[in-house]
Amino acid sequence: MQAQKFGARIASPSQAARLDTTHERLTALKHEGGTLDTYLANYGLPPGSRPAVDRHDRHPARRARERGAEMTRDSVLEARYVVKSFGATPALRGASVTVGRGEILAIMGPSGSGKSTLLHCLAGILVPDSGQVVFDGTRIDTMPENRRSALRRDKFGFVFQFGQLVPELTAEENVALPLLLAGARRREALRRAREWFGRLGIDGLEGHRSAEMSGGQAQRVALARGLVAGPEILFADEPTGSLDSLAGERVMHLLTAAARDQGTTVVLVTHDPRVAAYADREIIVHDGTVTTTPSAPAAPVGLALRENR
């Protein structure tokens, strides 16, 4: 039987979990309203790793630098007194934060503080036990799963610590994945994906697979995948955690430059103050609650954000 093209339609999209090929899985999920995080959680994880939503924070706390306290830009995302537990273990205990439109926000905190849980609640991956999560004026914590999936697919982008590239796909196919899941035609999706390789300094890697790339190259491919659909918000969970310091600095420089260029809001979790230094503002999650750093002169963008306590 002739091999199917990447992103081609198949006959029975309802059997995604039973399908063997990457192309079949992708097409089935696309027609069932699947999202990138759903795909990666089922098919795209490297051997021996766990989905980002299941991974516990592992790094010690670091002192965040000081930034300004007042912000005039309008808010695009807000958590209001969010509570989340896993069984008998509380992860968030009334956490509140507001994210300004176009802001780059760093979430820091000690191991097990709840910072990744907060990010996943903000992204609509997890539903809080109580409290509210509001995106662009609409509560997402009360949405049914299919609407939250559509929101993550159409409005949000994601970058994970280990990139989580699908090993069977080429670099350009990995970047095109969010577009294909959203229903774009294969040729157009690949055309848009290729535009990012020059922007992120990875020209010539379009046909490579993850095993043929360095960690820094693979993470830049993952960054391109997170930004290719022009998301309103990019969520990045330890985006440089698996890289050496030089590669990490390059990824952060490219991430922040690309986000500012297209007006994307960024919410990132990090344990590294050098990474947090790229943000407009930092918050600290400790014992499931959010604290802010003291006031100081404003960042170069001249803006900071008022926290909900």
Fourth CATH level, the homologous superfamily: P-loop containing nucleotide triphosphate hydrolases
Provide the CATH architecture: 3-Layer(aba) Sandwich
Class, according to the CATH hierarchy? Answer: Alpha Beta
Shape category = globular
Q: Specify the structural class.
A: alpha/beta
Cα gyration radius (Å): 19 Å
Mean pLDDT: 79
Main beta-sheet annotation: 6 strands, mixed
Strand line-up across the major sheet = 6-7-8-3-9-10
What is the straight-line distance between the termini?
Answer: 60 Å
Q: What proportion of the residues is helical, as a percent range?
A: 25-40%
Beta-strand portion reads 15-25%
Under CATH, the topology can be stated as Rossmann fold
Task: Give a topology summary.
Elements: H1 22-31, H2 36-44, E1 75-86, E2 89-100, E3 104-108, H3 115-122, E4 130-135, E5 138-139, H4 145-155, E6 156-159, H5 171-181, H6 186-199, H7 215-227, E7 233-237, H8 245-261, E8 265-269, H9 273-276, E9 281-286, E10 289-292
Parallel strand pairs: 3-8, 3-9, 6-7, 7-8
Antiparallel strand pairs: 1-2, 1-4, 4-5, 9-10
Can you tell me about this structure?
α5 (171-181) crosses α6 (186-199) and α5 runs parallel beside α7. The chain is globular and about 45 Å long. Mean pLDDT is 79; it is low at 1-19, 42-72 and 294-309. It is built from nine helices and ten strands. β7 (233-237), α8 (245-261) and β8 form a beta-alpha-beta unit. The strands form two sheets. The protein has a six-stranded mixed sheet, with helices on both faces. The N and C termini lie far apart (60 Å). The chain has 309 residues and is of the alpha/beta class. It has helices at residues 22-31, 36-44, 115-122, 145-155, 171-181, 186-199, 215-227, 245-261, 273-276, and strands at residues 75-86, 89-100, 104-108, 130-135, 138-139, 156-159, 233-237, 265-269, 281-286, 289-292. The chain has a single domain (59-292), classed as Rossmann fold (3-Layer(aba) Sandwich). 31% of the residues lie in helices and 20% in strands.
